[in-house]
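Database export, one record per block. Field names are fixed; values are copied verbatim from the stored entry.
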Amino acid sequence: MRLPFKNALAELPTPSGDGEDGGYFGPGNPGTGQPATSPGYDWFNDISLNLRYLLTQAGITPSVPGAAYDQTKLKAAIDALIAEAAPAAPAYDIPFLAGYGKGMVGEDIEAEAYGAVPLVRDVVFSGEVAKIALAPTGAALIMDILADGVSIYATPPQFAAGSTVLTPGIFVGAVETLTLPTGTVVTFDVPQVGSVIAGQGLLFTLVGREA
């Protein structure tokens, strides 16, 4: 059986000894004295080592002699290396702020919505980052993100009373990432503030990437 190696590619040697079929490697014909093609053992070694190198670079263990053939490894290696080399999707972080007056001077945060934006493309959100200048007291300060009026959180992010350390939110369904489609209106809301000190100087960023 002939292997479909064409010498149309510059990297392939020109097969010798079997000129039929435009350059396929072949077994030759002892009856007519036509020798089998012979590209040389060094070429086969080079091909083998290059394939092994590609597999190991992708973290795939090459088959050992005597093991069952696995014809999926090379494709898996190529797919893995392409995925690794592909650039990450551009960031699509959305910032909001609350509890700031003129000149970015801190003021008491109020329980209300503080901004909304429509998405211009599909976005995958993975969480949030928030900072607060003055911690709430008496009660937690709770933040929320609404997608077309519906919260994306099962447990919204918050600053506990007396704390400036963010307790991250948990998305609905406890999923690690949440995809929202183009046109979704994303609203930043503060449904609860501290009951003694409301809290001041809140910076909130919804972390996402283009889908």
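Remark 1: The chain has two domains: 20-85, 94-210.
Remark 2: The CA atoms of residues 92 and 158 lie 22 Å apart.
End of record.
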